[in-house]
């Protein structure tokens, strides 16, 4: 019998995998029950479970930008609804003021009560990116938005389900009527997709609740909650050990870096590590002010980026949970790009600025060259009775590092979504995919070259709005240790008459049938001087010997996996 008094290392490993398995099963339910291409096919969602206080316990390996930020949303709802919830209630939220990151990411949060229905014993939550929640343009990712109200429906703290009853009538008002009150805005252009996907999120949460209750029946409440805390403590210890090693490796030198958004706004970071206890201060003082645009990033995004970067650098197999951030104090200036006012537009902060934060962190520790630093957000659609909205993110190149070349045609760092299959894209929407290939020569040269970006050429078959939200069109992904920069991305509108028009990094156009939109994504930066013997300039015996690039960017894996790669 498992004791609630002593942590057993074997049981700790078992519980870690059991908790992660719960989140993975939640994700499978969400994918199976949902209907939209964005959630069902692109897998733009995340599921997780949280302690009674709202700390992240475990998540499935879904979208990093969502994972580290969801605790902010859960804690906001805990503060708002303290003592007011009952068994069968489900909450919905998406605003930065309540821990959200941008409006299309709808977070469904379910409290789980004890057998007496009095005390909340844990929380289940799922966050999905809905392809349209209203706003001034189809896809709810308008490139030129200046205010949050232009980006779609707002849910601060909405009771979506009361005692098991799904409130579709009020949901329709919130999604379809309220956003249309603002000049130039529309309500949701695909309300039935929203409804089905939200019900799928509710179902996913119930799956998580059922599985954790099975754990409680098997081991007891005290044991389950003890191991919920223990796996966070384990992650915290691993991060503290990492920070101690990094302090030793940098041997008193200043750990700092700066990089720039395409409009010139700096993101500055200085890291101070206490080598005794493995704590650290990540100070973003000097970062530019809130901008009159939409790549402002709510504080939850910066938190998520730091958690992700630290988890990447840890040289052990630990879950990404709240323990990863406990040793770190974040200093983020008020009214800055990384802590904007609540009325500021933010739709691009989650998908563009988050990537740059990770690049700055890796640059400060000299881990690897820059990734494509972008998600290349492409949307199209129409308003009106038969309106629709489509949204996708497009891969690029990852950066090379000390011992590995960058990966080509892959999502990096803060995103991990699929691309919609060509057959499904053309069946669901009035478009033709003319080309989808690697972009030869876009990766930076070096001893370990950067990965190649991609080319995505889409022909539009109806008059419609087309929008692009992208970065690294002005400032190239940096190389490191003598490696060359990756190529900048570019976006081109090709009219049916044959005109080739550059639309810049952030723009919206009205196309006609036969027009094409071509996105060429950035490559990753190269690492090391080309032609030199391929050996790492970093002492691999003391610094992350198994830091290897896998799938969604450079991640830490154990040594055996590194050898397999």
Spans of at least 5 consecutive residues with low confidence:
536-565
What class would the helix/strand composition place it in?
Answer: alpha+beta
The fraction of residues assigned to DSSP E strands is 15-25%
| Cα separation of the termini | 40 Å
Number of domains: 2
Helices, by number, come to: 11
Radius of gyration, in angstroms, nearest whole number:
23 Å
Assembly form of the protein: single chain
Q: Outline, from the CA principal axes?
A: globular
Biggest beta sheet summary: 7 strands, antiparallel
DSSP helix fraction: 25-40%
Write down how many β-strands occur, each being a DSSP E stretch of 2 or more residues.
22
Q: What is the mean pLDDT? A: 90
Strand arrangement within the widest β-sheet reads: 2-1-5-4-3-6-7
Pfam family, one: Hydantoinase_B
Protein name: Hydantoinase B/oxoprolinase domain-containing protein
GO molecular function, one term: 5-oxoprolinase (ATP-hydrolyzing) activity
Domain Hydantoinase B/oxoprolinase: 8-530
Provide an overview of this structure:
This protein is an alpha+beta fold and 565 residues long. The chain folds into 2 domains: 9-232, no CATH class; 368-539, no CATH class. The protein is built from 11 helices and 22 strands. The protein has helices spanning 9-33, 37-40, 64-67, 70-81, 168-177, 191-219, 221-250, 299-313, 349-364, 422-428, 559-564, and strands spanning 45-50, 56-59, 90-93, 105-113, 120-129, 158-162, 165-166, 255-260, 266-274, 279-283, 328-331, 377-382, 388-392, 431-439, 453-460, 464-469, 490-494, 500-502, 506-511, 516-520, 547-549, 554-556. The strands form 5 sheets. It has a 7-stranded antiparallel β-sheet, with helices on both faces. A hairpin with a 5-residue loop joins β8 and β9. α1 crosses α7. The protein is globular. The model is unreliable at 536-565 (pLDDT under 50).
